[in-house]
């Protein structure tokens, strides 16, 4: 079924091309996977929650804060991550940071600066929860001492804000080294630095905090806390008698892994006869089979180049990441992935990746739908994300059934992942990874002549495109 294009009014498009997980306030827009809402705008009647992260640098706290924020927003929970490092950089330019700023025995002047920065961040967290309609705030900082955490917990609870501590513990040295390497490349603290000096400085920062760092222990048994060990290898829980919201947070943590690979999106090849019917399981046309070959060759060439670039940047012989391919159970999708299967890459079929059910509009062009069902089209134009044509699915329905796929995607850490699917599915999954508003999702385009690549980093996801030469863009089905 065809769909209306640019004549439909929609909100700003920045989140389509830039990860919007740090957008703030009303600009965030409606949530794609929202289950239900209340009159207050907060879900599940869970009150106000502050998730306080704990852990040494290079333990993946920021990655965790951003990922958890992305997932909760997807569910419709008003969530925002507050990074203490952002407040430091706003207060003190990198060139002016006191030499003892990261040392436990800092001067009184430096301690006052640190306390002011901490207070600014803490006050913004409280304002977000108590004045701006937020439900979950994530406080991303080292929070190294039991006494400091107790004071923070008391301060928030006096304002009727529940506190959950999540400590990220890393005993895997390889994981720490990869986190350090990523920070060296992407952190605003080290823009323009020589790579070796950046790594040396960051390691010194870590070691300066080790003597004063106190892991969450027996003295804090009255707190609600989770210890995330080696990013999902093991979880330790205490308390968490906080109902549904805590369970959703825990569900995410049980599935999350530290992602180092890329997620690629690609359309399937064209079907025989050129007409796609939902009720008919079409095979690829000759043109579609040629496209499938070009897709495989283009992605392999791109991944090989990226691997060589990563080896050169690391200065060592890194192993090449594996690749897993996901498709729906439809013949056209599976046949598009056949070239990857022939080369030994695992291809997994996921029933949830089936395209959005078109209902009574199956096989109809948008012009036909407009003539036969003008009132239905008017309703669609008013709310293209939530509207269902008779006996059809909406984009919201697709988003809800994507949650198991999203959680499995979060578990795929060391391998690259290629998803070959219908554009309705790609729109929804892209919307999750790039934190798009539900208002944007129905209008995302995936030309057949390019592969979309989304790379995860600690602070946000980044999108780029890989051209497939001599292929028709074909924005239709």
From TrEMBL:
From the Swiss-Prot or TrEMBL record, give the protein name.
Answer: 6-phosphofructo-2-kinase domain-containing protein
Q: Which PANTHER family match?
A: 6-PHOSPHOFRUCTO-2-KINASE/FRUCTOSE-2,6-BISPHOSPHATASE, 6-PHOSPHOFRUCTO-2-KINASE_FRUCTOSE-2,6-BISPHOSPHATASE YLR345W-RELATED
Q: Which terms under GO biological process does the entry name?
A: fructose 2,6-bisphosphate metabolic process; fructose metabolic process
Question: Which GO terms of the cellular component aspect does the record hold?
Answer: cytosol
Which InterPro entries does its entry note?
A: 6Pfruct_kin, 6Phosfructo_kin, His_Pase_superF_clade-1, His_PPase_superfam, P-loop_NTPase
Q: Which UniProt keywords apply?
A: ATP-binding, Nucleotide-binding
> Superkingdom of this entry's organism?
Eukaryota
Q: Which SMART domains match?
A: PGAM
Q: Which Gene3D superfamilies match?
A: P-loop containing nucleotide triphosphate hydrolases, Phosphoglycerate mutase-like
What's one GO MF term for it?
ATP binding
Domain named 6-phosphofructo-2-kinase is located at 39-257
């Amino acid at each position: 079924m065809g769909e209306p294009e640019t004549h439909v009014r929609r909100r700003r498009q920045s989140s389509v091309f830039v990860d919007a997980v740090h957008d703030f306030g009303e600009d965030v827009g409606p949530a794609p996977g929202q289950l239900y809402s209340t009159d207050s705008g907060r879900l599940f009647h869970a009150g106000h929650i502050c998730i306080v992260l704990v852990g040494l640098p290079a333990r993946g706290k920021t990655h965790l804060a951003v990922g958890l924020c992305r997932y909760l927003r997807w569910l419709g929970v008003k969530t925002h991550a507050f990074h203490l490092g952002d407040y430091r950089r706003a207060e003190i330019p990198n060139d002016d940071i006191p030499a003892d700023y990261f040392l436990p025995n800092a001067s009184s002047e430096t301690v006052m600066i640190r306390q002011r920065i901490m207070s600014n961040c803490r006050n913004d967290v409280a304002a977000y929860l108590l004045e701006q309609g937020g439900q979950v705030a994530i406080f991303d900082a080292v929070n190294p001492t039991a006494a400091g955490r107790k004071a923070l917990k008391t301060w928030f609870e006096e304002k009727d804000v529940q506190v959950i501590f999540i400590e990220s513990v890393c005993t895997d040295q390889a994981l720490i080294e990869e986190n350090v390497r990523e920070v060296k490349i992407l952190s605003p603290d080290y823009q323009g630095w020589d790579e070796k000096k950046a790594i040396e400085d960051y390691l010194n920062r870590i070691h300066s905090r080790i003597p004063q760092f106190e892991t969450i222990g027996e003295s804090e048994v009255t707190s609600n806390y989770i210890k995330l060990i080696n990013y999902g290898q093991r979880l330790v829980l205490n308390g968490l008698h906080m109902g549904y919201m805590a369970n959703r947070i825990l569900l995410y943590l049980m599935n999350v892994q530290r992602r180092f690979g890329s997620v690629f999106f690609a359309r399937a090849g064209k079907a025989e006869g050129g007409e796609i019917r939902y009720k008919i399981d079409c095979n690829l046309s000759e043109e579609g089979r040629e496209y499938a070959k070009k897709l495989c060759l283009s992605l392999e060439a791109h991944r090989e180049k990226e691997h060589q670039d990563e080896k050169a940047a690391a200065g060592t012989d890194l192993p090449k990441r594996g690749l897993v391919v996901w498709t729906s159970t439809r013949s056209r999708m599976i046949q598009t992935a056949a070239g990857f299967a022939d080369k030994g890459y695992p291809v997994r079929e996921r029933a949830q990746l089936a395209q959005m059910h078109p209902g009574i509009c199956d096989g109809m062009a948008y012009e036909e739908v407009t003539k036969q069902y003008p009132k239905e089209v008017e309703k669609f134009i008013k709310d293209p994300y939530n509207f269902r044509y008779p006996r059809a699915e909406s984009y919201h329905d697709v988003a809800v059934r994507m949650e198991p796929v999203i959680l499995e995607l979060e578990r795929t850490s060391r391998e690259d992942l290629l998803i070959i699917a219908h554009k309705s599915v790609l729109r929804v999954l892209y919307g999750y990874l790039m934190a798009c508003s539900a208002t944007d999702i129905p209008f995302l385009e995936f030309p057949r002549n390019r592969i979309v690549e989304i790379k995860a980093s600690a602070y946000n996801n980044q999108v780029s495109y890989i051209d497939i030469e001599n292929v028709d863009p074909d924005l239709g089905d």
